[in-house]
Amino acid sequence: MVEMREFEELCAEGVKTGEIHGEMHLATGQEASAAGMIGLLRPTDAVVSTHRPHAHALAKGVDARAMLAEIFERSTGLCRGRGGHLHLFDPEQNFSSCSIVGASLPIALGYAYASRLDDSEAVAVAITGDGGSNHGTFHECLNMAGAWRLPFLVVVENNSYAISVPADSVSASETYAERASAYGALGELADGSDVEAVSTVMERAFRHVRSGEGPAIVEVVCARFKGHYEGDIDHYRSRREKAKASASMDPVAVARKRLLESEAATDKQLDAVVAETRERLAALLAEVRSDPAPDAADAGAYVFVDGVSA
Ligand SMILES: Cc1ncc(C[n+]2csc(CCOP(=O)(O)OP(=O)(O)O)c2C)c(N)n1
Asked: pLDDT tens-digit profile of 208-234?
């Protein structure tokens, strides 16, 4: 989680310096959802993320340097600097992200169906938000996965807002997890401020999905500490509401407190983890900054499969 948070601090910096163009969506405060899958995800599993993809990519094992290079628009990036932060694609790790809200589900469903056709044990994970869960794709994909018992796991990161729209003002159900019963799926709620609780719930969900019992929905209740995107004036929440969320729902702070209280680690050791992570990532970014930008002369390259012309 520290790695995820420090990685995103560099992304925030890149927006401020003008090195990164376009909207930047950070998952600060939501890291437990991604971290809770570490150790459960296998290389053959697929993860399809959203417009807020960095933590999920790191959890899936996507190389931090290649991802930084992509986000900082360098030709050494995952997609040669052409996709940017919203379009991280790493076929080797079976990781992709999609900025179209609700579209992570049908893409992941394809991976789940492929797993069935290949007779593989691979699971497909679709990440979505509370907003994305109200798209038709949520129902269509879970219905099909339920009918065909596909290895399909939907992780709903419920941070209570779709940009400025409060989740409870647009959802007919109290939770997203409870919708599972309509799809013959397992439905679980997890406290996103507690990475161990998330991990326990994820473990049950992965076991269920991998054993061929059909799909699962894991709803991780969390808070987005920053604006919807870097620069969002975030006028739809009061300062008090934001301060309360950061004080009580920070999974990094909760984990730190628990490690200290159980004497599993000292303050000094935990500070060293943060400092080492910060330094290592800063060094990667320093390298990335001297990588070349994509060449404008070949902007049309990689658009079509070799041998297929426009
Ligand atoms: C189909 C579609 N409609 C609208 C948008 C613009 N948009 C980007 S993020 C977002 C809100 C998504 O909310 P949620 O699913 O709760 O995810 P969160 O941003 O809270 O992580 C919207 C409406 C989009 N990218 N795609």
From this structure: 999 999 999 999 999 999 999 999 999
Residue owning tokens 């970014």: 285
**How high does pLDDT run on average in the chain?**
97
Output the six-digit token pair for 64.
């931090």
Q: Other CB atoms closer than 10 Å to residue 140's CB: what's the count? A: 14
- CB contact at 8 A, 56 and 129: no
Tell me, using a 6 A CB cutoff, whether residue 99 lines ligand 1: yes
Protein residue with its CA nearest to atom 19 in ligand 1? 162
Question: What b-and-e string marks burial along 268-300, b requiring 16 or more CB atoms within 10 Å of the CB?
Answer: eebeeeeeebbeebeebbeebeebeebeeeeee
| Alpha-helical regions (H) of 21-135 | 31-35, 54-60, 64-71, 104-117
CB of 53 sitting under 6 A from ligand 1:
no
What is the per-residue pLDDT across 285-304, written as a single tens digit (0 to 9) for each? 999 999 999 999 988 888 88
Contact in structure between 49 and 104 (CB atoms under 8 Å) = yes
Lowest-pLDDT range of 63-67, 165-169, 240-244, 301-305: 301-305
d(CA 300, CA 210): 41
Instruction: Say yes or no: CB of residue 155 within 6 Å of ligand 1.
Output: no
